[in-house]
Amino acid sequence: MSSVHNKRFVDQIMVMFGRETKKPEQFTEKAIQVHQLKRMTNKEAFLNASKEAHRLQQLKSQKWRNRRWATLIFANLLFVISFALDIQILEGALTASRFVGFHLIDLNSALQVMLAHKHIINNLLIGTGTVLLLWVLLGGRTFCSWICPYHLLAEWAEKLHLYLAKKKLVTDQVMDRRLRTVFWVIFALLAIATGYTVYEAISPTGILSRALIYGPGLAVLWVLALLFFEVFFSRRAWCRYACPIGLTYGVVGIISPVRVKYKLESCFHEGDCRKVCLVPHVLDTVIKGRAVDTEVAIGPDCTRCGLCVDACPTGSLTFEVKGLSKLM
């Protein structure tokens, strides 16, 4: 891996922890040539090409979004069905479960428990092994968009927020993304200091998972409060600025072979991908003049939701397995 790619890789990790994005200082020779050609292209011709790209975008399907919603709903309903029919397929909840006899423990929950108990618990390590391998292979934050029930509700709340913003009834209050790292540290310290998994008591992921399976309790009011805040004050605030699960799984997915890849040459920089992205800072590389190479893998904070792939009219963003061909 060249020094340009090494620098880009490190920058992507730092952005995941909350550092602001910035224009790279180093580029490969191929990227420099493409950037120069784009600057030399007649502005009118470029705009016409961009308009054509927008027209093509209207014809695009929402293939990846539909696949993701179906997977998320199926996974969570499998918990419900297993409990309701008393069949041993997927028992427990997202925090800790058992799939046809195999124990599955959420990585962030396992970490919180071990910090609270102040020692490594062998049974938890066994339960996290399969989960760790799964999300290393798929990309850690894939859990967020493909499995987490709160993510789906927050996505729908975001649509309502954007509608209200278009009507000028609300404005989006942007916060410092470093807050998520701060919250991760705070919850870890609370677990150590109190001997109690404080985060698990307020985790909307765990609350919703248990509510779906065993029935809602008062804790659901907390989830509704979060959604209310996201609709009227700050777009996707919990996932972007607070949730330690997202950061944990982001770290896990740093070396994932499954990623979204960006191709510079075919991009018209129309920006539709960043408008729909759930974590738009990961698509900083698509801004004109910022791609360090002609092909750039999107960073580990990407949730692999596929919205940008669906939105891109020129196919400049695609899913791929590193070293293999792109996914369908």
Structural notes for this entry:
The longest helix is centred in the N-terminal third of the chain and has 22 residues, at 63-84. This protein is globular. The chain folds into two domains: 3-60 and 257-321, no CATH class; 65-251, no CATH class. The model has no long low-confidence stretch (mean pLDDT 90). A hairpin with a 2-residue loop joins β2 (96-99) and β3 (102-105). The protein has 328 residues and is mainly alpha-helical. The protein has helices spanning 3-16, 29-40, 43-58, 63-84, 107-117, 122-138, 142-146, 149-166, 178-194, 198-202, 204-214, 220-232, 237-241, 244-252, 272-276, 307-311, and strands at 90-92, 96-99, 102-105, 258-263, 295-297, 317-321. The strands form two sheets. Strands 1-2-3 form a three-stranded antiparallel β-sheet. It has a three-stranded antiparallel β-sheet with strand order 5-4-6, with no helix packed on it.
Strand content: 5-15%
Could you spell the SSE succession in H and E letters?
Answer: HHHHEEEHHHHHHHHHHEHEHE
The biggest sheet amounts to: 3 strands, antiparallel
How much helix, percentage-wise, in residues? 55-70%
Rg, Cα atoms, Å: 21 Å
Strand count: 6
The SS-based structural class is mainly alpha
Name the overall outline. globular
